[in-house]
Amino acid sequence: MRLEIQTKNFSYPVRIGVLEPITHASKVLVVSDSIVAPLHLDTLLSKLQASKIFTHEMPSGEEHKTWEGIESILESAFEANLSRKDLMLALGGGVVSDMVGFASAIYKRGIAFEIVPTTLLAQVDASVGGKTGINNAYGKNLIGAFHPPRAVHIDPQFLKTLPQREFKAGIAEMIKKAVCFNKDYFEWLEKHPLEKHLSEGIYKSVAIKAEVVAKDEREEGLRMGLNYGHTFAHAIEKVGRYSTHLHGEAVAIGIQMANALACYLGLLDNPTQERIKALLKTYGLNLPYKITDFEGFYKDLQMDKKNNQCICFILPKGLGAFVAREDIDKSTLKEALHAWL
Amino acid sequence: MRLEIQTKNFSYPVRIGVLEPITHASKVLVVSDSIVAPLHLDTLLSKLQASKIFTHEMPSGEEHKTWEGIESILESAFEANLSRKDLMLALGGGVVSDMVGFASAIYKRGIAFEIVPTTLLAQVDASVGGKTGINNAYGKNLIGAFHPPRAVHIDPQFLKTLPQREFKAGIAEMIKKAVCFNKDYFEWLEKHPLEKHLSEGIYKSVAIKAEVVAKDEREEGLRMGLNYGHTFAHAIEKVGRYSTHLHGEAVAIGIQMANALACYLGLLDNPTQERIKALLKTYGLNLPYKITDFEGFYKDLQMDKKNNQCICFILPKGLGAFVAREDIDKSTLKEALHAWL
Fold first, then answer.
1. CB contact under 8 A, B308 and A83
2. Which residue of B lies nearest to A26 if distances are taken between CA atoms?
3. Contact B138 A106 (CB under 8 A)
4. Shortest CA gap A298–chain B (Å)
5. Which residues of A touch B131 (CB under 8 A)?
6. Of A8, A108, A142, the CB nearest to B108
């Protein structure tokens, strides 16, 4: 299966299926992490042809998605003396592809990169769309660039070694897209356990994202729907210092918070809220959470990069549609989120 | 006077003349340095209208064009909680505008910036074209982004406080463009002392750059002519740890090295070489230089970001034209540069 993602300046292919040979006329720097490299680097290298191949291994984990990590990747690139014609290749989850994307965006003012995503979350979401970046003391993905890859190679085989917890976390991003953009996909997900229908589920998820990103690459309208659950998720992750929750888990909690707010405002009815909850529960994503410091939590929401003083909430409007609301005051939010306080 | 610079995605104005009021609907972070701020910040602030104005002062000098400097600017931006609708405004020379450009390119994946250049070099060259970046251990401007400003406000009045040495260094970039792109401008420069014809000289220089950049924003062909003298200059600056030579001075030396190589290869005749030298001399730019370690110098040339294994030399072909040559071997170069060894 193959999809083509249209960006402002070029289009790139997303291939879904057994990894095909990747060939590049000049040098390639493969970047992976300490968990993925021992599992999959050899497989990738056996499929890769280039004039010269270099590898870089970074420590695994969201807490390493920092400037220091970028500097380390750049150092490997400078040591390899990559030119603007060469390529970086990310092998790993969203952290690796976000970082390689950002490193390649700023190396000599930008070189090309490709992605071989090895987590479900990266396959269905992070690898497509051109968002790259790192975290800092102020929050998540606050430093970065829009820098689309030149190709994405999705091989569901890589997911066989993925821990169950990570696999499930990735499903949150699939449910997110179903709720905001595509009722049919939501109903398909309700009827098709992903353990049995994985490739098709991934394909449908990427197809939705491709359509959204092609219409709004720079997040000026439609693409904002992809942030459903994410403003909350970023605050949850920040509070937990990026180590208590996987990104997808935080998104699952954020989805339920957004739903509670949507219900409170009459945008979503209770039965639909329950349906979304039930689908999350199928994959163990009905996670508990407690907001211990509401004021701090609220401040983190304000700091999220899409926000100015007012917070932009992406709220589902039934299934398959959403609204962006900036007019929710603090006390309204607090009442709507009482179940988490 | 006003020029419009066309980029792939938008165009922006370059205004030349007494600084006009700058208005912005939302927040503005003004970034300046420790030399420029005491001289000109008040003037700028008196012309600036915005919903909220923040200021950031960085230490002056090329040696501060580092990631630490970027982090410091970003910190001010996060403290001000700038949103994607807000603006950074660079007040200063090329170091300040390169850094503010890069910081704004990666802050929340990109916000707008404008430039009020206060050095001749920044007015005639650095502020136009969208190149932003920082130096690192591997060389100059090796980390960065293409991120064009939204407006450039050139007021020659700011140059009254510029030290003579810096003023002259800026002229090297004007001569550079004349030699590679425009014989008429070269002859105009020969006849018009810039002390008396400054605004017109700046206008002509920016106009040439505007045309070049519009035709080749990403440096895939024509724009490479702007690197005339620069591959050498970057090596000279690196050897001197960015403190012995001003950028323009290094460019002036680099121009003479490129000319020597061009003469050696029969691309430039001796009388023309002498004419260029004479024009440089008018402004005290016929600077002496000694390459103490040719092997190290050659390695630095190879590391320059436009190069792969072979080095791409931009060489004048008479006046008003250039060629890019990648076929010069080390011994040829050494012979051509014997005057500096």
1. yes
2. B308
3. no
4. 14
5. 109
6. A142
* Strands B112-117 and B151-154, sheet pairing: parallel
Residue type, A25: A
ipTM of this complex? 0.89
Known active-site residue A131: yes
What is the C-alpha end-to-end distance of chain A, expressed in Å? 45
Task: Tell me which of B209, B237, B249, B259 is the catalytic residue.
Answer: B209
Q: Active site includes B249?
A: no
Q: Cα B181–B183–B184 angle (5° rounding)? A: 115
Of these residues, B40, B230, B238, B245, which one is catalytic? B230
Give me the tens of pLDDT residue by residue for chain A, a chain 341 residues long: 999 998 888 899 999 999 999 999 999 999 999 999 999 999 999 999 999 999 999 999 888 999 999 999 999 999 999 998 999 999 999 999 999 999 999 999 999 999 999 999 999 988 988 999 999 988 889 999 999 999 999 999 999 999 999 999 999 999 999 999 999 999 999 999 999 999 999 999 999 999 999 888 888 889 999 999 999 999 999 999 888 999 999 999 999 999 999 999 999 999 999 999 999 999 999 999 999 999 999 999 987 765 556 799 999 999 999 999 999 999 999 999 999 99
Residue that has been written with the tokens 């590898």 in this structure: A55
Contact list, B141 vs chain A (CB under 8 Å): 109
Name, in order, each residue with C-beta under 8 angstroms of A155's C-beta and a sequence gap of 6 or more.
A16, A17, A18, A19, A116
Q: What is the largest CA-CA distance in chain B?
A: 60
Query: What is the set of domains in chain B, with CATH numbers?
Result: 2-160 (3.40.50.1970), 168-340 (1.20.1090.10)
